[in-house]
Write a structure and sequence with these properties.
With 351 residues, this protein is of the alpha/beta class. Helix content is 22%, strand content 33%. The chain has two domains: 2-148, 3-Layer(bba) Sandwich (Glucose Oxidase, domain 1), CATH 3.50.30.20; 153-345, 3-Layer(aba) Sandwich (Rossmann fold), CATH 3.40.50. Strands 10-12-11-13-14-19-18-17-15-16 form a ten-stranded mixed β-sheet, sandwiched between helices. Strands 1-2-8-6-4-3-9 form a seven-stranded mixed barrel.
């Protein structure tokens, strides 16, 4: 089926629709990840977004029932250059066309994704629509005006509190802003008892389980629009260790009184170099965020820096026992090099 992508600035890109077949309107971004596309599609941090894959070939190893990061994809659509219809991998269970249909995600192939990425870098993140028919630019903009991303966190958070891991020597309360399944697994692997709370949980509900650590997760959208989460974290400061990643890092920053601003086109991908300011070591990280800390509050110290653009990639506040990072640690120390972040959060790092 023929389809067209129409950007907020009026530019149009033609392609072939696959996956779920319907019209969508959302915010368009690009990701530089060369692999792990199944994890990308099911990452809750992409809720409400139309995602452009900069890597030109999509779907070579198909998809399976094991690598999803959430029960259901939250992204709206995926834009690719070339789609592979004949995947080859011993774990392959379905093609990416079948996978996107299963997940309810719209796909468009045949788009010049290099040019589209340049446009997003030049003009910044913007709204966009995908249609299967012909519509005018004016009608497209009318549809864009209806797009509202203010509730994306409540779309991806858990409906109610639940115990993910019932046993462990560290009691961790996770505030779920749209967490990835693999992050919870990292905590479980480190012998943590893990209880997951909705994004709008109150501080007294969280403290009722007497946690050793409160972990604020990754998630989509504007951290300032999280449903009362900033106020909850503010009430927890000084009472328990608080740590976080990605959007959780930004929520903690707001609770501490730091300033958070939106980036022009965000950080989305698996190849962002980050420098540990204490050791001078640089390692490669996965990031998925449109916002960044631009001013640190008194008592807050920068700990990690994005090598590409110099933005803050992590901070700590020793007085209040707080530390967080903007990136999503892979968890593997030997291969990726950033697994020590979880150990540091949990007080389990080897000295």
């Amino acid at each position: 089926m023929k389809a067209e992508l129409i950007l907020e600035n009026g530019m149009r890109f033609a392609g072939e629709m696959f996956g779920a077949e319907r019209d969508v309107v959302g915010e368009i971004v690009f990701t530089t990840a060369a692999g792990g596309y199944q994890e990308t599609v099911t990452d809750p941090s992409f809720a409400g977004q139309i995602v452009t894959m900069t890597f030109p070939i999509f779907g070579c190893y198909g998809a399976n029932s094991f690598d999803n990061e959430a029960k259901k994809a939250a992204m709206l659509a995926l834009i690719v250059r070339d789609k592979c219809d004949f995947p080859s991998n011993f774990r392959c269970e379905m093609t990416v066309d079948e996978f996107l249909k299963q997940q309810g995600v719209v796909g468009i192939s045949g788009v010049d994704t290099r040019e589209l990425t340049r446009v997003i870098r030049r003009y910044g993140t913007m709204k966009a629509v995908i249609v299967s028919g012909q519509i005018s630019t004016a009608e497209a903009r009318e549809r864009m005006e209806e797009y509202d991303s203010s509730d994306v966190i409540m779309q991806t958070t858990t409906d109610s509190t639940y115990v993910y891991s019932p046993k462990g020597d560290t009691n961790v309360a996770v505030i779920d802003l749209g967490t990835k399944e693999s992050v919870l697994a990292e905590l479980q692997d480190r012998k943590c008892k893990v209880t997951v709370f909705p994004a709008n949980a109150k501080a007294d509900e969280i403290m009722a389980i007497n946690p050793d650590v409160v972990f604020v997760s990754s998630g989509p959208g504007n951290p300032a629009k999280a449903p009362g989460t900033v106020e909850t974290v503010k009430a927890l400061l000084g009472k328990v260790k608080v740590c976080g990643i990605c959007t959780g890092h930004l929520v903690i920053a707001l609770a501490l009184g730091c300033t958070v601003d939106k980036l022009d086109f965000g950080h989305h991908g698996a190849n962002y170099p980050v420098k540990d300011l204490a050791s001078g070591r640089v390692f490669i990280t996965a990031q998925n965020n449109n916002y960044v800390v631009t001013r640190l509050a008194d008592g807050v110290t920068e700990t990690y820096k994005n090598v590409n653009d110099g933005t803050c990639a992590g901070f700590e506040c020793k007085e209040l026992n707080v530390e967080s990072v903007l990136f999503r640690p892979h968890g593997e120390t030997r291969i990726y090099g950033d697994g020590f972040i979880y150990d540091r959060f949990l007080g389990k790092e080897e000295k």
